Amino acid sequence: MIKAMVLETPIGPLALLEHDGALIGGGFTADPGELHVRLHPSLRALELTATGDLGDLSKAHLAYFDGDLTALDTVPVHQPGSPRRERLLAALRAVRPGETVTYGELAARAGLERAARAAGQACAQNLVAPVVPCHRVLPAAGGKGLKRFGGYYYGPERKEWLLSHEATTR
Predict the structure, then answer these.
(1) In the chain, where are the structural domains located?
(2) Strand ranges in the chain using DSSP code E only, listed in sequence order
(3) Which of 54, 65, 55 is nearest to 8 (CA)?
(4) What does residue 156 show for φ and ψ, rounded to 5 degrees?
(5) Which CATH class is domain 2-65?
């Protein structure tokens, strides 16, 4: 069984999915089902059940949005994938609040030189936002306006907010 709840945050609803004490889904949506259908097939087969609270997982997210930028560091996560993808997501989780990296830098941190595209794919497939902080990855080319933030599944405005929150809360 997968337990699901929706947490209200300063940038909109955040759906959280938990299984066996680990966060398996987190995303800025009011519909946990949107995350459920994107899960790894081994998890997607499990029933989704709504709950009002996920205990420590909920508290950690609330603390993060209240300014404790390290509150998400101890949240257990589970995202099944290839060893390469798991290495990239582990390297991504090690990017500290207030810090940003490029896709190439993320690949290098994972020991996968010249795998910037794979780093981009791992970010695109990340289902545990903001705990696995794909919002901290920026394109090397930069850009103007919101384009300087690059892609983010939940929109560049949310990515900008998260980066600003982490920069000003430090």
Answers:
(1) 2-65, 83-169
(2) 2-9, 12-19, 22-27, 48-50, 101-102, 137-138
(3) 65
(4) -65, -25
(5) alpha beta
Q: Is the pTM of this model over 0.85?
A: yes
> What are the CA-CA distances from residue 137 to residues 40, 55, 126 (Å)?
23, 29, 12
Residue 149 contacts residue 134 (beta carbons within 8 Å) = no
We find that the CATH architecture of domain 83-169 is Orthogonal Bundle (1.10)
Burial of residue 21 (number of CB atoms within 10 Å: 0-12, 13-18, 19+): exposed
| Residue in 134, 137, 138, 162 annotated catalytic | 134
Tell me the pLDDT tens digit for each residue of 33-78: 999 999 999 999 999 999 989 999 999 999 999 999 999 999 999 9
The CA dihedral of 24, 39, 51, 12, to the nearest 10 degrees, is 80
Per-residue confidence (pLDDT) for residue 40, from 0 to 100: 92
22-27, strands of its sheet edge to edge: 22-27, 12-19, 2-9, 48-50
134 an active-site residue? Answer: yes
123-127 contacts, C-beta under 8 A, 24 or more apart: 123/92, 123/151, 124/151, 124/153, 125/81, 125/85, 126/79, 126/89, 126/92, 126/153, 127/24, 127/25, 127/26, 127/27, 127/35, 127/38, 127/39, 127/79
